[in-house]
Amino acid sequence: xxxxxxxxxxxxxxxxxxxxxxxxxxxxxxxxxxxxxxxxxxxxxxxxxxxxxxxxxxxxxxxxxxxxxxxxxxxxxxxxxxxxxxxxxxxxxxxxxxxxxxxxxxxxxxxxxxxxxxxxxxxxxxxxxxxxxxxxxxxxxxxxxxxxxxxxxxxxxxxxxxxxxxxxxxxxxxxxxxxxxxxxxxxxxxxxxxxxxxxxxxxxxxxxxxxxxxxxxxxxxxxxxxxxxxxxxxxxxxxxxxxxxxxxxxxxxxxxxxxxxxxxxxxxxxxxxxxxxxxxxxxxxxxxxxxxxxxxxxxxxxxxxxxxxxxxxxxxxxxxxxxxxxxxxxxxxxxxxxxxxxxxxxxxxx
Length: 350
What we know:
alpha/beta
């Protein structure tokens, strides 16, 4: 498997926690503390007419153009998202048509969030390794800002939006990639939008906004996160998963050039890095402060936003990518990226 290019697209509208004093009762010190410890600062969010599919389409068009790629050589499109345009059809089919791809091209969605990019890479790698596909266009993006209530301070300041496109190709004699995929469905309700699906269909009651014990406002159709449980899950499972993957691959920590984790927040990233005794210069963590938690788009956003120059200049770079969150689900991959000429973060519309 060869990664031939990555492009991430972010919306132009920027929100800042400094402008949300009212959400925190006017407590300037609390805002300063959140910025320092958790890394809550700015985030990019879509307007009411822009979707994750729009962001992914823009990223894909730019990637295809920059790679001078004929459309008919793409034989699989995988779209990872939890904010699709429609209940049906899937985003991959919609984007297949909008991009004008060949009819001899498979198109499918993967309903995953924070771990979704690595799961998408695993699925693409499996298709390429088996010979079922030769070139896979992996699209990963979410517009989580549209699932949170503006006055739910537990989640509203965290989530930003983004879409990405990654081109993967089958190559002979490529470096091996090692994957670790794990799940704990018993914790499905720790990060959830309870209503609006088949289990609890949308109705007047599910749209009713109420205040919880902490003073946060949300309805059952908004995102709910048990922050303490998600934090404990992240700092427990992630370090163990990374250790096990490197041990299986028989690769030392020092041999990895960069550890690119899902950009949850700086506090989580710092704790994971500390538990693994990583050199923090090898752990990108500025993306979440610039763009917010972008769910499935956060890892490609961190790669394009913080490592693009390095990946273009080096003959090869060893990366460990790891995502964790909704599901509960977590996934890691150890891979080698050869000189990457197309690795960009662009604004929407391009």
